[in-house]
Design goal:
Elements lengths: L6 E7 L6 H12 L4 E7 L4 H5 L5 E5 L9 H18 L3 E5 L1 H14 L3 E5 L10 H14 L5 E4 L2 H9 L8 E3 L20 E5 L8 H9 L7 E5 L5 H10 L6 E5 L4 H6 L3 E4 L8 H8 L4 E4 L4 H4 L6 E4 L4 H12 L2 H18 L2 H34 L2
Parallel strand pairs: 1-2, 1-4, 2-3, 4-5, 5-6, 6-7, 8-9, 8-11, 9-10, 11-12, 12-13
Length: about 375
């Protein structure tokens, strides 16, 4: 489809930290070029603002945009967002992360600008805190009235929303996350002894505790676990490793910029978690040719085929996780087969090109709808001009 103008897109996200939602925005900006002008708004400078600095992107800070609910600062964030919208006059606002989704949709509705919201996992998903889940569910039901399109990163999330009355078939779209199929070092899963790795923030969403307890049950195997990431629960996890007597078998590496190399040096990728959307860390592991052991929640089964590209275990199941890890630790050939199947599944279903094309189709649908509305308004005015 050809356009006669350059469309202005405003991306809004709560934080600029290293994470899946931020990588999603970067890939959209870096790979959609023709006929689009991009702007980015976030609360602070960080990973995302840094990586887009080399691209032709205008960056703005919304200082009152915070993750926690605080009515006074949230009201100020809406005012800041409205001022920014009036300044850059976007054709579409595309919000990512829960708080940014709230602020952007209210401000967009006030300014009469269509807002697309990508939900990187719902706040009301099973496994999330109950009170927060209740508030999130009520909020999302109300905010759908202010949403042009609502993108879910997994079909599981779309079905959950439909079952709870959040949106409808026309509003909700599933667009799986995708990552660039760039040349990366490929792992050798069959190498012995296997090195284990998990890449995830240390927070209430991720379940490092279950993993550490499972590792403690595998004392007869010469394995080593690397944990990449930082966050509020990091020190508690270090203390747990010491109390379980596995401190020497676990490395806490902090945030790293060389994750592809770390994956290539590993033989098994793990993600234990309470709830997810569609984690990009698993896609990166599949791209590197690693078998995956993960918690069977939300969109993860859409990435990991149990018994083919990896093994899935129930949430908080220490013994089940230990058994799954032991199965792969004892079978280098099985690891190799799973890693190759995972790499193939990534190439077929989870590339950034597919994600880009499906997201552009959403934008184009909104542009067409806007054009129809403008045409109707002009036609109505023309008819009214006749005596």
């Amino acid at each position: 489809m050809k356009y006669s103008k350059k469309y202005v897109i405003l991306y809004i996200i709560t934080k600029s930290e290293l994470g899946g939602a931020q990588k999603n925005i970067y890939d959209l900006i870096a790979n959609i070029h023709k006929n689009y002008e991009f702007n980015l708004a976030t609360s602070r400078f960080g990973f995302l603002t840094e990586v887009v600095s080399s691209l032709d992107v205008s960056v703005y800070l919304i200082s009152n945009l915070n993750r926690d609910i605080k009515l006074s600062s949230d009201f100020l964030a809406i005012k800041e967002c409205i001022s920014l919208i009036k300044k850059i006059k976007p054709d579409i606002i595309h919000a990512h992360s829960s708080k940014a989704g709230v602020i952007a949709r209210i401000a967009g509705w006030i300014c009469k600008i269509p807002v697309v919201f990508t939900a990187h996992g719902w706040g009301f998903t099973p496994g999330s805190p109950k009170l927060r889940g209740f508030v999130a569910l009520i909020s999302e039901k109300l905010l759908t009235l202010l949403t042009a399109k609502l993108i879910c990163v997994s079909e599981s999330d779309r079905q959950l929303a439909l079952s709870l009355g959040v949106g409808n078939q026309n509003l909700l779209r599933t667009i799986h996350n995708g990552i660039a199929n760039i040349p990366v070092p490929i792992a050798n899963p069959s190498q012995q002894p296997p090195q284990l790795i998990m890449v995830a923030r240390f927070n209430e969403q991720k379940d490092h505790s279950t993993l550490l307890q499972a590792i403690a049950q595998l004392s007869n195997h010469p394995i080593h676990l690397s944990l990449v990431g930082s966050g509020s629960s990091l020190e508690l996890c270090k203390d747990l490793a010491h109390s379980l007597g596995i401190a020497e078998r676990v490395s806490f590496l902090g945030d790293r910029t060389d994750v592809p190399n770390l994956l290539a040096q590993s033989q098994i990728f793990i993600l234990t978690t309470h709830y997810e959307g569609l984690p990009i860390s698993i896609l990166e592991a599949m791209r590197a040719g690693l078998p995956v052991v993960a918690t069977s929640v939300n969109g993860i089964p859409e990435e990991v085929e149990h018994g083919k590209t990896g093994l899935l275990v129930p949430r908080k199941d220490v013994q089940g996780l230990a058994n799954a890890l032991q199965t792969l630790i004892q079978s280098p050939d099985f690891r190799q087969q799973m890693g190759e199947a995972g790499r193939q599944k990534f190439e077929q279903e989870f590339t950034v090109e597919r994600m880009i094309n499906e997201t552009k189709a959403v934008y184009e649908e909104i542009f067409k709808q806007k054009a129809k509305e403008i045409f109707k308004q002009k036609a109505k005015k023309l008819l009214q001009s006749f005596p």
